[in-house]
Amino acid sequence: MNFSFPPEYHDYRDRLTEFVREEITPYAREYEVKATFPRELWTKCAEFGVQGLAAPRAYGGELEEVDFPRALLAMEGFGYACNDNGLPFALNAQMWTVQMPILHFGSEEQKEKYLRPMVSGKMIGAHALTEPNAGSDVMSMQLSAAKNEAGNYVLNGKKRLITLGPAADVVLVFANARPEMGKWGVSAFLVERGTPGFTQTPRMGKLGMRSVPIGELIFENCEIPANAILGSEGSGFAIVNHSLEYDRCSILASQLGAMKRQLEQSLEFAKKREQFGRPIGQFQSVSNRLVDMKLRLETARLLLYKTAWLKQQGKPALMEAALLKLHLSESFVASSLDAMRTFGGGSYLTDEDGPERDLRDALGGILYAGTSDIQRNIVAKLMGL
Fold first, then answer.
1. Which residues pair with 274 in a beta bridge?
2. Bridge partners of 155?
3. Angle at CA of residue 349, ends 344 and 355, nearest 5°
4. Which of these, 263, 254, 261, 257, lies nearest to 369 by C-alpha position?
5. 144-147 vs 153-163, strand pairing mode
6. Which member of 9, 92, 235, 322 lies 3.0 to 4.6 Å from 250 by CB, making a disulfide possible if both were Cys?
7. Does this model's pTM top 0.85?
8. How many Cβ atoms from other residues are within 10 Å of residue 205's Cβ?
């Protein structure tokens, strides 16, 4: 394994970092405070080419083929430069759980219809898997997809906690088309905003990443044509597994960048802040916390790069993706707490962007894209337990 990236990867990351620092970060706090989706910033990202990282040139991307390690390094730079963890989370959610499945499993008609508009920022896509009674046990989903006499599918049921759900123009939704076949009866469908019987609820309030809307999707006798299916009937389980490996890598790449920013800010503060006549970084209790933050950052980076390398090589990465999701999400929470302890009482205030905001954002990471408990279950099973 070679984790050294070509110079052009670093050049692109640095250009993206500078773009985010100048064009995104100065305006991000306003959207977080108001809990509104930054559509204007989303469009700016598309104009720079961010959404195009998950599409080949034939559908609006910059390169002939999607280069996953290059994209991860770029999104690491995005998370480093942006104090809003929500925006890169939302971008990654569309890129890797909507665009990538369409690219790999979609028909040519579906690719032409959806990929280019998503890459250009004119269309927003959401991935709808979770239900009120199907969270960790997602394959117990109740959303049904029954074929009628006309050969169309009729969807009935509800999805919950859907990232970008209220803002989405098209939703990749998973439904049980043949319940008698268990997980192999699950299929994936592309449903557009405004389809009769399809309702997108208003955004739900949440603890962190407030600029990213989440909501419920309700399907009541929602009839969609047969060509709205992604892949073939019964391929939903394979699509879920395919997209979640990408999802767990990409979303966490941005958080890795945030952890690097967090450590640098904590180090700077510990060197300048004085108590009892000397910088607080000279107190062992403080310096030990900073060392722990550095250790988490470096071990998480190794897991991320290894998983990206495996995906690029076309090798299975289910174990590595689960370990990465578990370790990096838990590390971001732990390091956010250590940053707050380092900054002290001022970090508890909400009038500035700092550790308090990172902690609120980090907590979601131990829940979405598979909880930490589920990641442990996956790893245990793969270990033969």
1. 279
2. 145, 222
3. 60
4. 254
5. antiparallel
6. 92
7. yes
8. 8
Mean pLDDT score, 37-41: 96
Count of other CB atoms within 10 angstroms of residue 67: 19
231 vs 288: CA distance, rounded Å: 51
**DSSP for 327-375, written as a single string:** HHHHHHHHHHHHHHHHHGGGGG-SSSSSHHHHHHHHHGGGTTTS-HHHH
The identity of residue 135, as a single letter, is: G
Residue 332 CA to its chain's centroid (Å)? 14
Cα radius of gyration (the chain) = 21
Question: Which domains, and CATH codes, for the chain?
Answer: 7-124 (1.10.540.10), 126-235 (2.40.110.10), 237-382 (1.20.140.10)
Q: Report yes or no: 143 and 158 within 8 Å, Cβ to Cβ.
A: yes
Q: 198 in helix, strand or coil?
A: strand
pLDDT at 135: 80
Please compute, for residue 338, the number of CA atoms within 13 A of its CA located in the half-sphere on the CB side: 28
Q: What is the pLDDT of residue 352?
A: 67
Amino acid in the structure at residue 326: L
Token reading at 218:
């309700």
DSSP secondary structure string for all residues of 9-72: HHHHHHHHHHHHHHHTHHHHHHHHHHT---HHHHHHHHHHTSGGGGS-GGGT-SSSS--HHHHH
- Report d(CA 47, CA 42) in Å as an integer: 9
Residue 222 makes CB contacts below 8 A (sequence gap 6+) with 154, 155, 156, 191, 195, 196, 197, 198
Q: For residue 41, what pLDDT is reported?
A: 97
